[in-house]
Amino acid sequence: MAPRRGFSNIIRHYFSGIDVTLFATVVAICLFAVFNLYGIGGNDTLVARQAIFAGIGIVLMSILSFFNYRYFKNSSSLVLTFYIAAVLFLIMPFFFPSIRGVQSWVIIGGLTFEPAELMKLILIVLMAKYFSQRHTLINDFRHIIISGAYCLIPAAITLVQPDLGSAVIMAIIWLGMLMAAGINARHLFALMVIGLLTTVAAWLFVLKPYQQVRILSFMNPAEDPRGSGYSLIQSKIAIGNGYIFGNGWQNGPQTKNGFLPEPYNDFIFAATADQFGLLGLVSVSAAILLIVSRILLIGQRAVSNFGKLFSVGLVIFIATHAVISAAVNVGLMPVTGIPFPFLSYGGSSLISFMMGIGIVQSIKRYS
Q1: Per the confidence metrics, is the pTM higher than 0.70?
Q2: Domains identified in the chain, total number
Q3: Which of 34, 118, 129, 208 sits 20 to 30 Å CA-CA off 47?
Q4: What are phi and psi of 107, to 5 degrees?
Q5: Which residues contact 171 (CB under 8 A, 6 or more apart)?
Q6: For 15-51, how does the pLDDT look when each residue is reduced to its tens digit (9 = 90+)?
Q7: Residue 95: is it exposed, middle or buried by C-beta count within 10 angstroms (0-12/13-18/19+)?
């Protein structure tokens, strides 16, 4: 009886210190993702891998919720070590074969890992640490430049791979956390001008022709329905065919007949609509909104600036992925390759999101 009581005490202690609603919502959407992938037509290996990724994510989320986040808050050397390691890891894909013309993945034993996803999480930790130490000096342009350099290094590497979507999200994380830290309007306007000029320069000198075609094709996919516009057209058809209640699990015609490309990743939002209709999309969106709101609530109640800023950064990380992915699927943005949080197939983004949730739960526990 004693071992059982000991285990039950551990479980009770774990749940007494965390946000149970946040935990339950994350686990629920992960379980739905596995169910959804199987219905789309994912083979047993793909579905099993996603279940394993979710299991690993839940374990890491639970472990990090016990880890005292103040180690990040108080140790600059620890945070910088993680940052340098993440940057070096981000360079590793250049030594592996490209996938669909992009060198963004490390390939080990048949499994692929995308270092850019982990880099986004480490960047949030670093920005929370940097800005929380200098919240009264945030409008010193020197600190804006230094923090921008921390973001620019990994963003530039991802652009070269080339992974435009991840580079943009890194920039959004930095800018959003800078605003949360209290940057004034004059400096914000200057950064927006610099960002506009950088965007023009990237279009002219960095983006490859296929990326430019992808960006332009979303404006009028009907111009090339069998080429660059094919994905967006099929995505819209899948969403429209789903109507309100969908065609049923394993009965989505666009996914079942192979018309929708990348239904497990880039177009998971449309594939979900194909099966579960508008009701499914609203349910998934509501789950994301609930996750975001619980994170913001934890950040609001945090006793440290680090906790508040990290929570804001994680919300930006999750919300930006969700908004961009959904916008791509309905034709409001060009295809970027950004996964939908917790729903798309793949371990890199899922585990990174769940590790971030674990740190937020630690902020809740130790606040």
Answers
A1: yes
A2: 2
A3: 118
A4: -110, 115
A5: 151, 155, 195
A6: 788 999 999 999 999 999 999 999 998 788 899 999 9
A7: exposed
